[in-house]
Design a protein that fits this description.
Length: 187
């Protein structure tokens, strides 16, 4: 695969005030019940077609543990797509497409991901997203903002430690009141 077709996307869902989780880590706030008449509707088929473009997911250990817990009620939302969990801890591996990785992030991206995938999504957590931004390893940020102010919790952009220029690539407003912003990270 050519490296110029490779994109590493950070995807986060946040409240309007920039929190990605409540203090208790619950996601009950994802269901806001809002309605925006001018927004677009995405069918299940359209969502499935979009997800087919993602070759690999990467996530931190807490996101993985949370996804495992949610999978008991909702199933494993990442399907059979290769999923790399970045951690230094011993974690259960309950599916054949899950791999635990604890090495250098530059090596992971340059020696493994770029050689094997075109479209990689980092789906959590905040600390890992900050590392990828700081190290210049991410290509874009897709932030889905839900119509709610949480007033506290885990912030998405807390203490990145450097200024980062972005370029707005796309934005969409959905019937649910969610707004999705897609920014290219300028390098």
């Amino acid at each position: 695969m050519a490296a110029d077709t490779f994109t590493l996307t950070i995807h986060m869902v946040s409240s309007l005030d920039g929190y990605i989780a409540k203090k208790d880590n619950s996601i009950s706030w994802f269901e806001t019940g809002d309605s925006y008449e001018q927004g677009v509707t995405v069918t299940a088929e359209q969502a499935q077609e979009f997800l087919k473009n993602i070759d690999c997911y990467i996530m931190g250990s807490r996101t993985y543990e949370h996804a495992l817990e949610l999978s008991k009620a909702y199933g494993w939302v990442y399907g059979d797509i290769p999923t790399i969990v970045l951690t230094h801890r011993e974690l259960p591996v309950e599916r054949p497409n899950i791999e635990i990785y604890s090495g250098d992030l530059h090596q992971l991206v340059n020696d493994r991901l770029k050689l094997n995938y075109n479209n990689v999504w980092l789906v959590g957590g905040a600390e890992l997203a900050k590392d990828f931004i700081r190290l210049g390893l991410a290509d874009e940020i897709r932030q889905s903002i839900l119509p709610i102010i949480l007033g506290g919790g885990m912030p998405f952009y807390d203490q990145i430690g450097k200024e980062q220029a972005l370029h707005l690539k796309d934005l969409k407003a959905y019937k649910s009141g969610m707004v999705e912003l897609c920014y290219e990270i300028k390098k």
